[in-house]
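[retry 2/3] Chromate transporter: previous attempt timed out, resubmitting with same input.
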Amino acid sequence: MSENRSQEKSDVKGVLSQLEALLDEYMVQKAPFALPIEVKEFLVNVSPYLVIVFVVLALPIIFAALGLTAFLAPFAMMGGYGYGFSWGFGAILALVISVISIIIEVMAVPGLFKRTKAAWRLLFYASIVSLIGSILSFSGIISGIIGAIIGWYLLFQVKELYQN
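[retry 2/3] Chromate transporter: success.
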């Protein structure tokens, strides 16, 4: 059983490493233009503060959405909206994905101040989680993909400024 889990972990790490290499190739090496070093430095310097601000702003929204979801789910079921299950499931899934993404971003904040590669990687993982969430919830597939591409471009442009 333990051997299967370690195999699964290595498979996930392999897929993430391949995705990272592919994105590095297209977002840095084959990108139509690179950001100037001043812009990269600015992004790296301001990113921990942006993460903190966005987390603080997102928490009340998540708590409110959680309360509204719990309150409105029975009415959605009675009204026949998505037969209750799909509406409630989609809302709960979006909330869970948002919470997971925020937790990963919060974990990255101390390393962002220190410019560690591990913190950069946590932001990368948070972007993947967010993209998966937008795809699974069917609420904003196109906007999720566009947001991921823009985020990955910026993230991979500043990758060189994060050290181990």
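[retry 2/3] Chromate transporter: Residues 36-161 form one domain.
[retry 2/3] clearing retry counter.
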